Amino acid sequence: MRGIGCSLLVSGLAVLPLIACSGSDGEAATFGTTGITSLGGDDLGDGTDADDADDGSTGPLLDSLAGDESEATGVDTEGCGAVSEEAQNELAPVDIVIIIDTSGSMSDEKNFVQQNMNIFSQQIFLANIDHHVVVIAESSPDGPCIGLPLGSGACPGDTKLPEYLHVVENVGSSNALDIILATHQTWATSIRPNSIKHLVVVSDDDSATGAAAFDAAFKALDPNYADYFFHAIVAYEAPNPLECIGGASCCSGLIPLSADVGSVYLELVNSTGGVSGDLCDQQFGPVFSQIAQSVQANTPLACEWDIPEPPEGESFDPTKVNVELTLDGMVESVFFLDSEAECQGGDGWFYFPDNIDPQTIRICPSTCARTQDAVEASVDILFGCDTIPVG
User: Fold this and answer.
1) What DSSP assignment string belongs to 85-152?
2) Which domains, and CATH codes, for the chain?
3) What is the pLDDT of residues 265-289, one digit of tens each?
């Protein structure tokens, strides 16, 4: 009889197989993606009955169900061994759309924004956050041009995909929210379904579109936009020239820095839990730092894991994968569903984008919420046993 030994590693969202497996007689074992597909059933590949194998020689037994066959699922688990890979959760990806008022009155502010964009990006990089940033603004020299590491620095073509996209658009004093909606098809490919979404508006005026109308229209663009954070760098006051003579704070000499209070933007900030900065202060660095901290604070752990490439000459068997969670010391098996639509507020896991061409493993929203709420959480992805369906 042959003994089989395997060494595997999962690192973050990327599941990296380190496989060194062979039979005691020097023959290679038969694998699926990272587990042994021939472990379930009656044959180990050389005619040996699975019941005669040494317990644990092929990895931990899948103990989700007991007995020869479960009445609930009809899955034969007798003698089924699985190779377990522990996936360590990392932060979910973050996608940020920044729209900058590039009207004539914003010339000074545009320069401040450009100077601080890379600082903002570096803070997110240092936090180890996977991010995409979209800037909607006029191209340089009228608009900002973002250098390395976020942008290319090759102005005016500073786009550097996939991390950074510059949507060239003339943004007026009061139409920033309308421009976000109108340009959606241009930047939608930079927004990932499982990311945390943040919108940032920089303007010295107010919006002609109301907060409630924008909120409804933005969420209608994509179901994944249901939960987003809105941040704004806008004026908290709008002095007239006479107030500037009297020494009002929102002035550059005798010239007002703001056209109007950003009331609509501030309303969106309050309703979504975002942060705001006072345009009149002209201190953009601290404001971007505050937004970066908000991005970090509101970035939960991911609930999705890559499916690793199978060893050379082998193929992935999606019917021999199971998912097991350990939440605050309690182990629980998560049952397989055909799609996210079957979650229906309950627990489970499914393949994304589908079972035909699975790329990742995801858990249902309610399962994800419980995982993120746990003080300590780990995930075991088990390969080699028949997948246990719900029901």
Assistant:
1) EEEPP-BPPEEEEEEE--SGGGHHHHHHHHHHHHHHHHHHHHTT--EEEEEEEPPTTTS----TTTS-
2) 1-90+301-391 (no CATH), 94-297 (3.40.50.410)
3) 999 999 999 999 988 887 777 788 8
